[in-house]
Design brief:
The protein has a single domain, classed as Sandwich (Jelly Rolls), CATH 2.60.120. The chain contains two helices and 13 strands, in the order E-E-H-E-E-E-H-E-E-E-E-E-E-E-E. A seven-stranded antiparallel β-sheet has the order 1-2-11-8-13-6-3, with helices on one face. Strands 7-12-9-10 form a four-stranded antiparallel β-sheet, with no helix packed on it. Strands 4-5 form a two-stranded antiparallel ribbon. The mean pLDDT is 96. The chain binds two DNA strands through strand 7.
DNA sequence: CAGTACCT
DNA sequence: ACAT
C-alpha cells in the first residue's frame, strides 16, 4: 500500500478490467436518471471544466448563489439521487477502514482537456472519515500537497482502476488534477476520464 | 478559494 | 492577479 504522503494511499490498478467495465455500465444508468450538470464557482458563477452528478443519499453540488454544499436532490431535476450501488459500498468497506458507510458518491466526468485546481475536500461535517477516489478511463496527472495551499506538492499519474484514499493526516491535503492524457485507456469509448469520490458527510 | 488569464 |  504505497503512501504518497502521510495519510494519502495509492492503490494502483486496484480494480481489474471486468470490475471497471461493470462500474462504467453502472455509471451510465445513474447518469440516465440523474443527468450531468456543470458545476459553477460560488459568487462568480464561472463554470468548472468537469461535468458531474451523484448517487447515494447525498450529493455534492455548487451554484453561484449558494456555493458548495451537500443536498439530497438533483439541482436540475429536483429528484432524489440514485441509490448508492452495493459495489461502491463494497469498495468503501475494503479500502476505507471506516465503519460507517459513505453517503455521497460524486461522479466527475473529465473531458480530455478538463482540469481540477488544487483544493481541499472540506464540505463534509465528518472530517474523520476518509475520502475514497476511483479512477476510470484515461490517465491523469494527479497532484497532492499538504494542509497549506503553498506546501510542496507531488505529482503522480493515475490510471484506470487506481484507487486513492485520503485519510487521517491526508484527509485535508490539497489535491487536484493537472491534466488528462488523451487516448491512454480503451475503457471509455468517448475518451476522457471518470472519477468517483466516496464520502461520508454526517458524523 | 474544487477557476482562469496572463505574465516571466 | 483577480476574485472567492
Amino acid at each position: 500500500m504505497p503512501q504518497l504522503s502521510n495519510g494519502v494511499r495509492h492503490f494502483p490498478e486496484y480494480l481489474d478490467r471486468a470490475r471497471q467495465e461493470g462500474l462504467v455500465e453502472m455509471i451510465r444508468s445513474i447518469v440516465a436518471e440523474a443527468p450531468l450538470f456543470v458545476p459553477v464557482m460560488p459568487g462568480t458563477g464561472r463554470p468548472m471544466s468537469v461535468r458531474m452528478t451523484n448517487c447515494g443519499p447525498l450529493g455534492w453540488v455548487t451554484d453561484k448563489e449558494r456555493g458548495y454544499r451537500y443536498q439530497s436532490t438533483h439541482p436540475v431535476t429536483g429528484m432524489p439521487w440514485p441509490a448508492m450501488p452495493e459495489v461502491l459500498l463494497d469498495i468503501w468497506n475494503d479500502v476505507s477502514g471506516y465503519g460507517k458507510p459513505p453517503q455521497a458518491c460524486l461522479i466527475n466526468f473529465y473531458s480530455d482537456d478538463a482540469k481540477m485546481g488544487l483544493h481541499q475536500d472540506r464540505d463534509e461535517r465528518d472530517l474523520t472519515a476518509p475520502v475514497v477516489s476511483i479512477s476510470l478511463g484515461n490517465n491523469c496527472l494527479f497532484r497532492v500537497g499538504g494542509l497549506s495551499r503553498t506546501d510542496r506538492t507531488k505529482s503522480i499519474k493515475l490510471t484506470s482502476g487506481d484507487i486513492v484514499v485520503l485519510g487521517g493526516e491526508g484527509r485535508l491535503c490539497f489535491h487536484g488534477v493537472d491534466r488528462i492524457y488523451p487516448a491512454t485507456s480503451t475503457l471509455l469509448k468517448n475518451g476522457g476520464r471518470i472519477n468517483l469520490t466516496l464520502r461520508r458527510v454526517d458524523p
